[in-house]
Amino acid sequence: MKRLLFSIFALLTLLPVGAQIRGNNIIVTVEPDHQDWNYQVGETAAFTVEVRRSGTLVSGVSIDYAAGPEMYQDVKKSLTLKEGTLKLTGKMSQPGFYRVDVTAHVDGKDYRGACAASFSPEKLQPSTVMPADFREFWENAIKEARYTALEPTKRLLPERCTKDVNVYEVSFQNVRWNSRTYGILCVPVKEGCYPALLRVPGAGVRPYQGDVWTASQGIITLEIGIHGIPVTMEQKVYDDLANGALNCYWNFGKDNRDQSYYKRVVLGCIRAIDYIEQFTPWNGHQLGVTGSSQGGFLSLATAGLDRRVTCYAPVHAALCDHTNSLRGIACGWPHYFYKGGENIATGREKLENSDEVVTSRYYDGVNFARLITDKQKGWFSFGYNDDVVPPTTAWATYNVVTGPKELSPYQATWHFWFQEQWDEWQGWLLKELGR
Which helix (H) or strand (E) holds 275? Predict the structure, then answer.
C-alpha cells in the first residue's frame, strides 16, 4: 500500500511540470536602423538581417529574400550568409511601406522574418471614392431593416455566469422576418444602468464565449456573430459551414451592393445597438464598438453610421481601400483586385467602372471612417509587419478620420496581438466607458 501511495504521489507531482512548447530555437530578425521604423520619403532605410540559433549567428545559412513596396516587392534573391547576417537598404519615392521578407532554410525547415518600414505614412491617402449616394444608401437600408421588429430571444447560460455577471445567448431579427443575429450578452448582476460595449467579430465561422471580464468591470457587453446562426453550437457545425455553405463568404454578392453578404452584416451591427438600447439596462450615454481585422472594419462601419456610438477601437482593420491595387499599391483584405503580385494599374480604366469595383466602395472601411464625427473618439492599432491587412491601408484609413483619435502601432506584429497591445486596448476602452 505504501508503494502504491508513493507511486500515485510521484505521478501527481510530475504532471504539472510538463514543459510547454514556446517559440523556436532558430530566429530570423530584420531590424531597421530607426527605432520607430519610420522614415521620410527620400531617406534611405538600412536593414540588418540575422539568423540565430540559441542566440548566436548561424554560419553558412541559405536564405531567400524579397524587398520593395509591400505586396509589390521588386527585388527577389537567394544567397548564402557566410556569417549569418546581411545588410540591406531601401527607400521610397512616395509615402508608403518598404517591406523586407526573409526566409531562412535550416535543417530542412523554413523560418521567416520581416520588417516593413514606413515612409511619411502621415501623408498616405486612400484611393477609394465615396459614392455620391453612400450616406443615402445606408440610411435607407437602416430604415428598411427597422421595419422588421427585433422580436428578441434570450436564454440564460448558467454554466457561464459568475457571481457578478449574468450571461445569455440572445438573438434578434435583422433585415427581414426570421433573418436573425445571434450573440452573447453579458450583464452585471447588480441593479443599475451601465455603459455598453458591442464586440464585432473577425472573419471566420465560430462559436462565441462573450466578454464576461469586461462585464465584471461594470459594462454591458454584447458579442455578436454575423452569419445568422446560433453561437453556442458544437465546433464541428461551424467547421462544416466554413468548409461548405459559408466558404469564402466575403466574396458573396461582391458585384451587387444590395446582394453583398456584408450588407446584412453591417445592418446587423446597427440592429445590435438597437437591441442594446431597447432591451438592456444601458445608461444611454457611453457606448463603444470594437473588433479586429474584419471586426475592425465593422467597428468603423458601426461608428460611421450610428451616432449612439461614443467610442470605437478598430485593430488592424480589414476591408479598407479595396481599389488601391488598381494603382499598384497595397490594398486591404480580402484583396479583391490584387492579382498575385501583378501590377494591374494598366487596366485601371476598364476596372474602375466594373460592378465589383463600384460595389466595393459601399463596403470600404475608408468611406465609413469618413462619416465619423468629432463627438466620437477612436483608438487605432495595427502592425507594420501585417501581411494580411497592409499598414498602408491602415494608416490611410486613420488619416481620413477628422474626429478625435489616437494611434498606437505595434510595428513588429503581423496579423496578431502582442500582450501589451491587448492590455492597452482594454485599458482605453475601460477609460472611455467610464471604468
Answer: helix 261-279
Could you tell me if 323 and 131 are in contact, meaning their C-beta atoms sit under 8 angstroms apart? no
Closest to 421 in 3D by CA, of 369, 383, 376? 383
How many residues in total does the chain contain?
A: 435
Distance CA 396, CA 13 (A): 55
Which residue do the cell numbers 483608438 mark? Answer: 379
What's the pLDDT tens digit per position in 50-63? Answer: 999 999 999 999 99
Among the listed residues 225, 272, 259, the one whose alpha carbon sits nearest the alpha carbon of residue 362: 259
Q: Give the pLDDT confidence score for residue 387 in this predicted structure.
A: 94
What gap in Å lies between CA 329 and CA 338, rounded to an integer?
9
pLDDT digit string, tens, across residues 1-41: 444 444 444 444 444 445 788 889 999 999 999 999 999 99
What's the distance, Cα to Cα, between the start and end of the chain in Å? Answer: 57
The packing angle between helices 261-279 and 294-305, to 10°, is 60
Averaged over 397-413, what is the pLDDT? 97
What is the 3 state secondary structure string of 202-250? Answer: CCCCCCCCCCHHHHHCCCEEEEECCCCCCCCCCHHHHHHHHCCCCCCHH
Q: Sign (positive/negative) of CA torsion 424, 429, 432, 435? A: negative
405: pLDDT strictly greater than 80: yes
Return the ∠ at Cα 78 (arms to 56 and 338), rounded to 5°.
110
Q: What is the pLDDT of residues 243-255, one digit of tens each?
A: 999 999 999 999 9
